[in-house]
Amino acid sequence: xxxISYTIHGPPTARAPLLLTHGFGASQAMWAPNLxxxxxxxxxxxxxxxxxxxxxxxxxxxxxxxxxxxxxxxDILSASRAVVGGMSLGGFLSLLFCARHPERVxxxxxxxxxxxxxxxAAREAWNLWVRAxxxxxxxxxxxxxxxxxxxxxxxxxxxxxxxxxxxxAILTQRDGEVFQSLGRIAxxxxxxxxxxxxxxxxxxxxxxxxxPVADKVLIEDAGHAANMDRPAxxxxxxxxxxxxx
Length: 245
Known about the structure:
Layout: E1 6-9, E2 18-21, H1 32-38, E3 44-47, H2 63-76, E4 82-87, H3 89-100, E5 105-111, H4 120-140, H5 149-152, H6 159-171, H7 177-181, E6 189-194, H8 198-210, E7 214-219, H9 226-229, H10 231-244
Parallel strand pairs: 2-3, 2-4, 4-5, 5-6, 6-7
Antiparallel strand pairs: 1-3
Helix pairs in contact: 1-10, 2-3, 4-6
């Protein structure tokens, strides 16, 4: 995986490691407020999606490639199974990973994210927004990002061009596979959403209704990066979930 940047945190233990995937426009740096608490008794692997952070953006970029990169990261840890977690785009990819490789997933941690769309019109509206964002990145550079804390701490070696390529390739959605997979998830899931993350509140409710074993946590005074806005509350919720898992 020469083009992918990743970091391993925490001590090697018998507990299932935690694989964390960031959201669009962010990088693995967004997990810094959580690593000490969550990595006290298990390994954590954070990584930069292609075109993000210190990862390059060469070759064909697809959802399938991202899932296979995640398989490779677990192999680096020599982990047959892991707790797979992600924020926003990273949460969607975690759900896709679970649909494609359920035998590698011990549990899910889904942060300010959603399962995509089952309705074609809603999916196309999302894709139109994504393509406009990619065009804006090409035109204005990194100033086109929303300015949330997750993007503020990210430094992208591939620049705005890498993010624009990533947006067109993996932020867009093609079908309802992930949404349709929710009822087949056979591991416990923790759904965390910021109370001020208006765009993803309904998505969190939809996942909580459809995933057979799911707990939803609403974090007050938090937006789209609840793990950064209220790290103490986020860390406590995840640790309680992992203890009860």
